[in-house]
Amino acid sequence: MSTRTQEPMLTVDELAARAGVTVRTIRFYSTRGLLPPPEIGPRRVGRYGPAHLSRLALIEELQHQGLTLAAIERYLQRLPDGLSPHELALHRALVATWAPDAPREATHRELERRAGRPLTGEDIDRLAAMNVLERTADPEVFRVDPGLLHLGVRLLEVPISLETVLAAREVVLDHTRQAARELSRLFKDEVWEPYRERERDPERVETMRTLSAHMQPMVVQALVTAFQRSLREELRGSFPEG
Q1: Residues 171, 149: contact at Cβ < 8 Å?
Q2: Are 133 and 124 spatial neighbours (Cβ–Cβ below 8 Å)?
Q3: If you classify domain 1-95 with CATH, what class do you get?
Q4: Report field, pTM of the whole predicted structure over 0.70
């Protein structure tokens, strides 16, 4: 028997509070087709789920990158139908690699409003361990990644100890650092240095430098895709019945 719990459904007011936008904004996005329609529950009340939250976080990130509404519409139209909240979060993470991180400050009360639930000190510790937020000198103010917050809150419901979360984080950091180090070395030795030796023109070298920066999102997407496939294979081997 499956032990999965039903995903929490939200009213439009609750969705607005969790996403940090206004109800008017949600209705506007819905009329433009940026958000899928809600499920209609009793008394004809619309209900929204985690996929709506993830899509709003993606829209917010695309706006943060400077895309116009028309460009955001085109981007979302190219996404496959039926993407899960986790897949939408992946798109948001890939978009966020196009520019330096810009964490945003939030008070404890604002965090709870976005989370849709009270947050204990242990909850804050777990969210910090997942890199969802960072503490500041003020114990009531945090630097938060809004796009990851609701996913981190969902993980709070999973019965995993803080020690396990920290251990998993170290595994991920260790292997990603190693991959980044080796890829940087490969690019430097096989692409950058030979090009610089051949091309002495400063403008051509600067062009190469710009192109290398544009490669970052492609490298991140390749790494994420490879990791997803490897993880799927490992899970199938470890849990053949699941």
Answers
A1: no
A2: yes
A3: mainly alpha
A4: no
